[in-house]
Design a protein that fits this description.
The structure is a single chain. Strands 17, 18, 22, 25, 26, 27, 28, 29, 30, 31 and 32 form an 11-stranded mixed sheet that branches. Strands 12, 13, 14, 15 and 16 form a 5-stranded antiparallel sheet that branches. The protein has a 5-stranded antiparallel sheet with strand order 21-20-19-23-24, with no helix packed on it. The chain has 4 domains: 230 residues, no CATH class; 107 residues, no CATH class; 157 residues, no CATH class; 128 residues, Immunoglobulin-like, CATH 2.60.40. By secondary structure, the protein is of the alpha+beta class. 13% of the residues lie in helices and 31% in strands. A hairpin with a 5-residue loop joins β23 and β24.
Length: 656
């Protein structure tokens, strides 16, 4: 009832604004038709659209696609300042503008332009976090990419966009005030701005779009991220997000300081004042080692602007969970999650800039990471329990090489009804501990191993068929006893990880924060999934295929196109897993791709996966091919990627 009343009030405000525009003869940003007025002259409207693509920092090299109400498309690429221009001659509003980050750091950003303004100047349509929030409020699902369907886009009207804009202004009132912006009349779509971490760009820095548990989008402030606003056609003004305790550019000096240190190979405690003398990350005092960024990848690495996800109190001190984008010398981009801490006294840098925070790290003595994960599992066979489904939960990564002496670990925290255990795998080709294949009550002792061959814990699952239901295996170490409603799990939850040696003796503990939003399996319906190309599936994942025999290496190809747009998450790793006799008595064998995939054509990619090569690119066995797809054997191909602290796994499997 309260939401309905609020929306009615906003609607009245929009109606008044439109009345005022009409009384003034139209014009402005409202646009009009191109027919003749009473004087018999034609109204001239803009013939191009321009704007800035930014998610706090300018998104450079973004592929920008403009789609009109008939499905006609035009494209451009954003420049070094995130700017783009697209001709719209002969095209019909409303328009959807989609910007895909070439580096894959940000999910697609979206903007809408309901009408073209009058005049000859280009229409302005920025594509940012804030415009994506407005687009989400135009959909019932909260998924702005739904607007790529022409039938949905054609329903977008100027009043609906204005209503969403006014609602967003009220939600952001505190943050707008903090950054010297008006709390009413601010239009993030049409107002030009510079991505320099001040003004409108500072507002973008402060907020994040997170996936809600059911898959829609929610808006949060880094000042209080557990207060979120679900974005859809029902969004009201009942919540006003909090303003943060520091200016948006408070960490900006770190980018250049860390880049300089990377060039010198000194991303450790000697990299002052960027890295604290007490810095510790995944068991290392070196930022690069803690995130497995070794030479030569580090040489020439360039750090981008840090993004603050959440201000928190940790160990009794003011800290911040930070996202650090890093472009490696190879041109590929990775994202690091770490912690910054407020200094007791600011440090004055050359030129007079003051640095008030430095990097303190996660303070873990062990290498471990936990983040949200969601899977789509597709079975190409017809076994009874092989039901196509979505699954979600946590990825728990404990690398074996970085944790000498660690034999097992237990994890407790939100969403986990009982301790989750990890231990050595019996499969070859993996570099992390695997989840126990059965429930445990105490630490396993050598030579115990797990048959699960996975680090993906599942707390939620949903069958994709109305006639076939998946039943989680009883007493499994990697499925929850009952499906969990992820909306009850707070964002940025902390987990306690306890480590043990081969005799079951405790070695120590770490506290780990999940940087991704927790998801229920139902969120899988809103994910833009990549798809293996049919020829590959026919040849490698069917018993009669031309590649069904034993293989030492496979060329894997897939498409990232969804509704004709490159919406799917960027695939950064491809895994093949086979079960069946190979050599030396091995029954399970993994293989991983090495390096970035090849972009063969628009939206299509290819990479090579070699048998026995682990996720670190190390050959763990020789003369060990992938098992043939014969009776009793199985094959699995997994397309993995990640964005905003969430890991995505598209899994295609045949069990013969």
């Amino acid at each position: 009832m309260h939401h309905a009343l609020v929306r009615t009030g906003v609607a009245a405000a929009v109606a008044f604004a439109l009345f005022q525009l009409g009384g003034c003869g139209g014009g402005g940003g409202g646009g009009g038709d191109s027919g003749s007025g009473s004087s018999g002259t034609s109204t001239v409207t803009a013939t191009s659209v321009s704007g800035t693509v930014a998610s706090g920092s300018a998104v450079v090299g973004a592929a920008v696609t403009l789609i009109d109400s008939t499905g006609t498309q035009a494209t451009a690429t954003s420049d070094i300042n995130g700017a783009y221009t697209i001709s719209v001659k002969g095209m019909t509003a409303p328009f959807l503008i989609v910007a895909t980050d070439a580096a894959g750091i940000s999910p697609p950003l979206v903007s809408v332009l309901a009408q073209l303004p009058t005049g000859t100047a280009p229409a302005v349509a920025n594509v940012t976090t804030l415009t994506t929030a407005i687009a989400a409020m135009l959909t019932s699902s909260g998924n702005p990419t739904d607007l790529a369907a022409t039938a949905t886009l054609a329903k977008v009207t100027l009043p609906s966009v204005q209503l969403a804009t006014i609602t967003l202004d009220q939600i952001l009132a505190n943050i707008l005030t903090q950054n010297g912006m008006p709390t009413s009349g601010f239009n993030p779509i049409n107002a030009p701005f510079t991505p320099n971490h001040t003004g409108a760009d500072a507002v973008i820095d402060t907020v994040s779009l997170i996936k809600a548990a059911n898959g829609g989008l929610s808006l949060v402030s880094n000042a209080a991220p557990r207060t979120s606003v679900a974005l859809n056609t029902q969004t009201g003004q009942s919540v006003t997000l909090a303003a943060p305790p520091a200016a948006a550019n408070y960490l900006e000096p770190l980018a250049s300081l860390l880049t300089t240190c990377a060039a010198n190979g000194t991303l450790n405690t000697s990299c002052t004042p960027a890295i604290d003398t007490a810095f510790l990350e995944n068991g290392s005092s070196d930022l690069a080692v803690g995130h497995d960024l070794q030479d030569p990848a580090l040489k020439g690495a360039v750090f981008g602007s840090p993004k603050t996800l959440a201000f928190i109190t940790r160990n009794g001190k003011q800290q911040a969970l930070v996202q650090l984008p890093v472009t490696l010398a190879s041109g590929s981009t990775v994202v690091l999650y770490t912690f910054a801490q407020q200094l007791a006294a600011p440090v004055t840098l050359p030129g007079g800039t003051q640095l008030s925070w430095d990097l303190i790290g996660d303070q873990s003595q062990f290498a471990v990471s936990i983040n949200s994960q969601i899977q789509r599992r597709t079975f190409l066979d017809s076994r009874l329990n092989d039901v196509n489904r979505y699954e979600s939960g946590l990825t728990i990564s404990i690398p074996t090489a970085s944790n000498p002496g660690v034999y097992s670990a237990s994890v407790t925290g939100p969403g986990l009804a009982a301790p989750v255990w990890l231990m050595p795998r019996n499969a070859s080709g993996s570099s992390t501990l695997g989840l126990s294949d059965s429930t445990l009550s105490s630490a396993p002792v050598s030579p115990a191993t797990t048959l699960s061959n996975t680090s993906l814990y599942r707390w939620s699952w949903q069958s994709l068929s109305s006639t076939a239901n998946f039943t989680a295996p009883a007493s499994s170490g990697y499925y929850a006893a009952q499906s969990v409603d992820a909306s009850t799990v707070p964002i940025y939850s902390t987990y306690d990880v306890t480590f043990y040696d081969q005799n079951g003796a405790q070695l120590g503990q770490s506290v780990v924060i999940n940087p991704g939003s927790p998801l229920s399996a139902s969120a899988g319906g809103s994910v833009a999934w990549p798809t293996l190309l049919p020829d590959f599936v026919t040849q490698f994942l069917t018993p009669t295929g031309s590649l069904a025999g034993a293989q030492y290496a496979m060329s894997v190809s897939w498409s990232s196109l969804v509704n004709g747009q490159n919406f799917a998450y960027p695939v950064t790793s491809v895994q093949i897993q086979t079960v069946g006799p190979t050599v030396a008595g091995m029954t399970d064998l993994d293989g991983f791709s090495v390096g970035a995939p090849n972009n063969t054509t628009f939206g299509q990619y290819q990479t090579t996966v070699s048998a026995g090569v682990n996720a670190e690119g190390v050959q763990t066995c020789t003369n060990c091919p992938f098992a043939p797809l014969t009776s009793g054997n199985s094959r699995l191909v997994q397309l993995t990627g990640g964005q905003n602290g969430i890991s995505y796994y598209d899994i295609s499997q045949y069990n013969d």
